[in-house]
Target: Post-GPI attachment to proteins factor 3
Amino acid sequence: MHMLDGYAVAFLLMLSLSVEVIDASAGDADPHYRICVSQCEESGCVGERCFPNCKFSSDGEPIDRPWYMQEPLYLQWKEWDCQSDCRYYCMLDREKEKELLNQGPVKYHGKWPFSRIYGMQEPASVAFSALNLAIHFHGWVSFFILLYYKLPLEDGKKAYYEYAGLWHIYGLLSLNSWFWSAIFHSRDVDLTEKLDYSSAVVLLGYSLLVAILRSFNIRDEATRVMVAAPLIAFVTTHVMFINFYTLDYGWNMIVCVVMAVAQLAIWAVWAGVSRHPSRWKLWLVVFAGGLAMLLEIYDFPPYEGLLDAHALWHATTIPLTYIWWSFIRDDAEFRTSDLVKKAK
Ligand SMILES: [Zn+2]
Model:
């Protein structure tokens, strides 16, 4: 147990160190790059290439646009566009120069130099997020069909499975989280980043709650509320902290890793002691999920400007999600047949 503790501490330390550097990366500390960006934000051009969104009209002229496109939101978007275009083309120029000098890629503002596709900043992560979303949707719909159309219903209308409502909310939170992940990887601005991080924290906190409720067989409403209250309070506080105080990447990573490791451990132990008929699916997801988390630590630059460790991490959760929903369906079937037997 002590070895495990030591390992967990080393693991968290490594994680917090690896994210601490996000604020200032080697790329954006480079004076060539800095000069390029500040010149671009004034002139609106990098070399021959000029960006229309770098021409701001802040002199208060009435602009003939619908209300939601008027200042300041409209100006804000223009500013974001200008800044992101400048940063992107300055980065490309700088990386080209460095390639001639045989220097490897470095990070800019915490991110590797990715090639954009249709204006998406990290196209591979966007594609994998969308696939995760699709698999969650498929999993949830098939769970729904199994529960209400294939399995017997109590009094002909209510599902026997006691954890149905919990998994429905889990499905919704998963869809929400992958939706914002796809948006964030398409376009990284303050707003999309906060939405993505907040949704991920909420999903992680909620799935930890489900892990506790399911593995301890907590079916009684009052006990469920008692267990949920401190977790909900903590997650709410943390979400408010990262949104309205400061998005501390190191601290947020620790919170996420602790919640993730806790639920993996709970499922693993439960799979061992419960003799659940589909426990091999639990073990597979726990084991592969743990391995996949290593991809977040061994961060490598994108292959061909597209496929990096983070994108690969999002790719690994696609088959795991499929197996996960199949476990949830098995669990519903298993519990239902048990309950129907008892009712007879
Ligand atoms: Zn991501």
User: Anything to note?
Assistant: The longest strand covers residues 45-46. Residues 222 and 228 are 10 Å apart (CA to CA). The chain has two domains: 24-100, 123-343. Strands lie at 45-46, 49-50, 153-154, 158-159.
